[in-house]
Amino acid sequence: MKKDLYRAERSRRRSRSAAYAITILIIAFLLSACGSNATPTAIPTVVLDSDNANQPVQVSHSNDGDVVASAIVVPVQEAQLGFSLPGSIKKVHVAAGDQVKAGDLLAELDNVSIQLEVEAAQRTVRELTSASAIAAAEQAVATAQKTYDDAKKKVDGIQNRHADNVTIKYLEDQVTLSQNTLDQAREVYKQTGGLSDRDTRRAKASTSLYNAQKAYNAALANLNWYANPPSENDVALANANFDAASAALQEAQWYESELKGESIPSEATGAQLSQLQQARGNLQAAQAQLEQTRLVAPISGIVVKVDMVAGEYASPGQIVVVVSDTQHLQVKTTDLSERDVTKVQVGAPARIMVDALSQEFEGEVTGISPVATTLGGDVVYEVTISFTEQPEGLLGGMSAEVTIGE
Question: Which stretches of 260-336 are DSSP H helices?
Answer without folding.
Answer: 271-291
